[in-house]
Design brief:
69% helix; 144 residues; flat
Length: 144
């Protein structure tokens, strides 16, 4: 579960994380085992820690963890933004996701810095509360 400060950081990091994913053409897929075609009948790679394939896999695991973090942040924001019921707050989040500067957002909505900060806090609160609610519901389902 993310804390409010984590969620705020995620909102402001959303733009560059999504850009990295788009630039790399990374598609997150949980099923990496071939099920069809010739790949499904080919022998699987085996070897010790000293072989070249294993070293490449170990090197790629850091990249995969980094990409997974990017996917996690983007998915979190995208999945919980639907709960923001205030139109102005929703549009502010969309602009933040597009990396529009706070000063420019203030000009677009004709609001001051305090009002914008308050609205960002409201957005964070909504995301946090729905995340907590989802985790509570999952916990209850698991324990029944």
């Amino acid at each position: 579960m993310y804390h409010t400060q984590d969620i705020k950081t995620m909102i402001f990091e959303y733009h560059w994380r999504k850009n990295v994913l788009l630039k790399q053409g990374y598609e997150y897929d949980s099923n990496s085992t071939a099920q069809y075609g010739i790949e499904s009948v080919m022998p699987k790679a085996q070897g010790s820690q000293g072989d070249k394939v294993s070293n490449i896999v170990i090197g790629n695991s850091k990249i995969e963890r980094m990409y997974y973090k990017h996917v996690e942040v983007v998915n979190f924001i995208d999945s919980y933004e639907q709960y923001i019921d205030n139109d102005k707050n929703f549009n502010i989040l969309q602009l933040l996701k597009e990396n529009v500067r706070k000063k420019e957002i203030q000009e677009i909505f004709d609001i001051g810095q305090t009002n914008l900060d308050s609205r960002i806090d409201d957005i964070i609160r909504v995301l946090y509360q729905h995340q907590a609610s989802d985790q509570y519901n999952q916990y209850n389902q698991y324990n029944q």
